[in-house]
Write a structure and sequence with these properties.
The complex is a heterodimer.
Chain A lengths: L20 H12 L10 H4 L1 H12 L4 E5 L8 E7 L2 E7 L5 E5 L14 E3 L3 E2 L6 E2 L5 E3 L17 E7 L2 E5 L8 H12 L7 E11 L3 H8 L31 H21 L6 E3 L7 E6 L30 E6 L3 E5 L3 E11 L2 E11 L10 H26 L14 H18 L1
Antiparallel strand pairs in A: 1-10, 2-3, 2-5, 3-4, 4-9, 6-7, 7-8, 9-10, 11-17, 12-13, 13-14, 14-15, 15-16, 16-17
Chain B lengths: L18 E2 L3 H5 L6 H4 L7 E13 L3 E8 L12 E6 L9 E6 L10 E6 L7 H7 L5 E8 L7 E2 L3 E7 L3 H13 L5 E7 L9 H10 L3 E7 L11 E2 L4 H7 L7 E6 L1 H13 L7 E5 L4 H27 L1 H5 L12 H5 L39 E3 L4 E5 L4 E5 L5 H7 L18 E5 L2 E3 L7 H5 L2 E2 L4 E3 L3 E4 L1
Parallel strand pairs in B: 9-10, 9-13, 10-11, 11-12, 13-14, 15-17, 16-22
Antiparallel strand pairs in B: 1-8, 2-3, 2-7, 3-6, 4-5, 4-7, 16-17, 18-20, 18-22, 19-21
The chains are: A alpha+beta, B alpha/beta.
The structure holds FE2/S2 (inorganic) cluster (2 copies) and fe (ii) ion.
Chain lengths: 434, 469
């Protein structure tokens, strides 16, 4: 399913490197001196040069989550995803596969598609109407008087893509990391039963958070701060990330309820043949992942105040609504919650060193009717609130990192996944800089 | 005595997703198979006469009465619905007594239909029915009525069917219907009875469960003491019992029919095991006053509709019995990709495909030449066909082999165009009426064409046209 890269990025007209050598060395040193178990030094969150390195070493080399099939259900549907200096077109082609094209016209570089999402046949640049086929070939450029113009040389640049269990991933590296296929094999059986190809978007929310993309990811990797999420705490056990032995007294009762709910969830999963075991390889592989199916509080069905379903139509061929949440975290830019009744996808797209787009998408069965099977307000309430609270937390940290008084602090035991994320990040960048 | 001859492993049938009632697509389609096919769709109740053709004694003091309509039409209904029958209990010259009975047969065998009646010695009507209704007797009926029935299409056909005593009749219709249809389904029947020998239809249920892997049947013996050798469940309905027969009840649609007390308990228990309110469908079989009143209202409404429609039908009786359509397009491979069609049912509308349509405000323009604004436009050019450009306010005459864009641009119609080869889509316009022949190269998508757009640079006109440009 991957698209070959037809044109290698050539270095023509580029500065030898995006950064002067001495600055590169300086940055490499910062990575070298990163103190394990502690948050990163301030420049990692505030410095433009490190942001540029992030775009080069992380977003330029790894598999990035872009969108789900529900966002481009029909041939010709597309979404554009932007991160850092890049803009990509993710387009559903007539074979049902996906083409990923750099959204940069080969004439004079204009953005070819300017909408965030839409539907198109051929792609026409708005400037001088150069026209590209859905696979990126230049098929028309009016050329009065030209004699030596070879259209074959000016196709849109292509990137790699993979569709797994209805999730679309892109990679702009010439040679994408190979272990993504193994990671796909891990998560595919967890997600496939929810059948994303038979879902539709109930709602999509784009928030720009005033914070570095790493702070957004870090914040998502721990529930140490979950006291700050009263709505979420109704259904998500606040003991998340804790283990026997480190349960504070005020959470003991919840912990027992959690364990009981988990064991009956696991029994149901075994009955229906759904995997639930925790697979945690956040920093032990290049395409880092954590996935599990975990119980929810209350009725255990969905992210609602009483844990009850928020949409009345079951996804895929699932047989039971009480399936808790199958949650997945993928390095570097996404996390997901798959319930019996709906799915929430989170995609993180860095804008610059201090701004990040967080895109949250709520998917329900494609035959679920708004107002009949689900109430949009209720469906989106918990995570809309939670996202706003998280945005505020991230922004507080960004402000802190900008202060001369800021000094890295220790990640606590329950924040081990934050450490894993940072460890993954540091390793990847160091490999790239080496 | 011959035991199993051979044990041969037989693999599961391969099935399409979900269940769809045979009439569903016919009712969802707006053209094509009309009249006769629609007669099979249960979109409204009717008044009709039916003749008893057979009586079949059942276990548990029940009797099945098989009828056919006197007018020869099939009886169209949904599995779970009932008919109202006028019984001349006090003789032919007295007012008949009306009673409603669930249909126990399957609507997929619509040429005859069954009701199954339990004789209640204290009752006025049921003993009379057992005694007097015989082959040859003709009765007045009204139906089908009732909202307790299987959906017309269901891609997640997972059901828990709960029946107590005579409440098995509509449930039996559902089981027979599902068994007669292709498609994936997952059906659990839990049937409560008062005594071991009192389960009507148990032989047929056992047979269906043995040959149809989609159907599982469980019996429970109410509160009575178990006879020797009873291998099924015993005791009243409990949450544990529901969990035992359907641990995934939470994700099923439940249909329950039986006495009031039984259903009230069932409602509570179902909630307890996590079944959503909207997934519970109930039919109060031996209704209390309230239920009876509701029945009566429903019947009164049905009678009104039946009367109205009877007149219409009399007028168009011919449509009704026209030749059967050759194929309804059911169960074709495209089914899964396109999903199920949803029939809207009421009210019945005759669709005349030739009638002028008005889908949006702009259509209708130019439908009647001479009456629209286009008649006041200047006309330029020569040719056999007329193109009316509504925004520009001009009529352009063209020949059928001329590309529309060129002629239009020459006449001063402003349509942006770049490639002129049907690739870039920049010339895309909306046609309000008329037909074109288009040879595009990806500049337009099928969806846009369906929405009435076309690329004039690579199109020629086939008829007179009205264009939004
Ligand atoms: S920049 Fe795209 S056509 Fe000129
Ligand atoms: S001008 Fe390009 S499609 Fe018509
Ligand atoms: Fe949070």
């Amino acid at each position: 399913m991957s698209a070959p890269v037809n044109v290698a990025l050539n270095s023509r007209g580029k500065l030898a490197s995006s950064l002067p050598a001495h600055q590169r060395a300086e940055i490499a040193e910062l990575f070298e001196f990163r103190r394990a178990g502690y948050s990163l030094d301030a420049p990692f969150y505030t410095d433009r040069s490190i942001f540029n390195i992030d775009m080069e070493a992380i977003f330029g080399q790894h598999w990035i989550y872009a969108a789900s099939v529900a966002e481009l259900p029909e041939p010709g549907d597309y979404v554009t995803v932007d991160y850092g200096p890049y803009s990509l077109i993710v387009l559903r082609n007539d074979d049902g596969d996906v083409n990923v094209l750099h959204n940069v016209c080969r004439h004079r570089g204009a953005r070819v598609l300017t909408e965030a999402a839409g539907s198109t046949g051929n792609l026409v640049c708005g400037y001088h109407s150069w026209t590209y086929s859905p696979s990126g070939d230049l098929i028309h450029a009016s050329a009065p008087g030209e004699t030596k113009f070879d259209k074959g040389c000016f196709g849109l640049k292509r990137a790699h893509s993979r569709m797994v269990a209805g999730l679309i991933f892109v990679c702009i590296a010439d040679e994408p990391p190979a272990d993504f296929d193994e990671t796909s094999k891990i998560f595919e059986p967890y997600l496939a039963p929810h059948d994303l190809s038979k879902t539709k978007i109930a709602y999509q929310q784009n928030i720009i958070e005033e914070g570095n993309w790493k702070l957004v990811m870090e914040n998502n990797r721990e529930c140490y701060h979950c006291d700050g999420h009263p709505e979420l705490a109704c259904s998500l056990f606040p003991t998340w990330g804790l283990t026997d032995g480190v349960i504070p007294p005020h959470l003991e009762e919840v912990w027992d309820r959690n364990k009981e709910a988990q064991s009956s969830l696991e029994e149901r999963c075994r009955r229906y043949g759904l995997p639930y075991e925790v697979v945690e390889e956040l920093d032990t592989r290049v395409a880092g992942i954590r996935i599990s199916r975990e119980s929810l509080d209350g009725e255990g069905e969905s992210f609602s105040p009483d844990g009850r379903r928020l949409s009345k139509k079951l996804l895929g061929d699932l047989r039971d609504f009480r399936l808790g949440r199958c949650s997945m975290h993928l390095q570097p830019n996404s996390w997901f919650h798959f319930q019996g009744d709906h799915v929430i996808t989170f995609a993180v797209f860095p804008v610059n060193e201090h701004q990040t787009l967080v895109r949250t998408t709520w998917l329900v069965a494609d035959d679920a009717e708004e107002g009949v099977d689900y109430d949009l307000e209720k469906l989106t309430y918990t995570w809309k609130q939670t996202n706003l609270q998280d945005k505020a937390f991230v922004e507080l940290c960004q402000k802190g990192a900008s202060s001369p008084a800021y000094e890295p602090g220790p990640y606590m035991k329950s924040e081990y996944q934050v450490e894993a994320f940072i460890n993954w990040y540091v390793q990847r960048v160091q490999e790239h800089l080496a | 005595m011959i035991e199993l001859l051979t044990e041969t492993a037989i693999s599961e049938p391969s099935r399409i997703r979900g269940l769809e009632m045979p009439w569903n697509r016919v009712m969802g389609s707006t053209e094509g198979p009309a009249g006769a096919a629609r007669a099979l769709g249960p979109w409204h109740p009717q008044e009709f006469m039916a003749e008893c053709v057979e009586t079949v004694p059942e276990a548990g003091g029940m009797m099945t009465f098989v009828f056919r309509r006197c007018d020869g039409a099939p009886l169209a209904f949904r599995a779970g619905q009932y008919v109202n029958i006028a019984f001349p209990v006090n003789g032919e010259d007295q007012d008949p007594v009306d009673r409603s009975y669930s249909l126990s047969s399957s609507p997929t065998q619509p040429w005859t239909f069954n009701i199954t009646v339990k004789s209640d010695p204290a009752g006025l009507v049921s003993p009379w029915v057992h005694e007097n209704v015989k082959p040859g007797m003709v009765l007045d009926m009204l139906g089908p009525v009732g909202a307790f029935h299987l959906p017309d299409a269901d891609r997640r056909a997972r059901y828990l069917l709960l029946a107590a005593g005579a409440g098995i009749t509509p449930i039996m219709s559902m089981v027979r219907t599902i068994h007669s249809l292709p498609g994936q389904a997952d059906v659990v029947v839990l049937y409560h009875g008062a005594e071991a020998g009192g389960y009507a239809f148990h032989q047929e249920l056992a047979y269906i469960a043995s040959v149809d892997s989609r159907v599982k049947v469980f019996y429970s013996l109410g509160n009575r003491s178990k006879p020797e050798g009873w291998e099924w469940l015993s005791g009243r309905l409990t949450a544990a019992m529901i969990d035992q027969v359907a641990p995934d009840a939470n994700g099923r649609q439940v249909y329950a029919c039986g006495p009031e007390g039984y259903l009230n308990t069932a409602a509570e228990l179902l909630k307890k095991v996590g079944v959503d309110d909207t997934s519970i469908n109930m039919e109060f079989f031996s209704g209390d006053r309230q239920t009876l009143l509701e029945y009566q209202e429903e019947l009164a409404l049905a009678a009104d509709i039946a009367e109205e429609i009877a007149e219409e039908i009399a007028d168009s009786a011919q449509d009704y019995y026209e030749s059967q359509p050759t194929a309804f397009g059911l169960y074709e491979p495209g089914y899964d990709a396109e999903g199920t069609l949803t029939a809207t049912g009421l009210p019945l509308e005759t669709v005349d495909p030739d009638a002028p349509r008005s889908e949006d405000g702009s259509s209708g323009v130019g439908e009647e030449p001479g009456s629209s604004d286009a008649s006041s436009f200047d006309t330029v050019g020569t040719g056999s066909l007329t193109l009316s450009f509504m925004r520009t306010g001009i009529n352009v005459r063209v020949d059928p082999d001329e590309h529309i864009l060129e002629v239009a641009q020459r006449a001063g119609v402003r349509i942006g165009a770049n490639c002129k080869e049907g690739m870039c889509g920049s010339c895309k316009v909306v046609k309000l009426s008329g037909e074109v022949e288009m040879n595009h190269q990806g500049g337009i998508r099928a969806r846009e064409i369906d929405a009435g757009k076309f690329l004039p640079c690579c199109s020629t006109a086939r008829t007179d046209m009205v264009i939004d440009a």
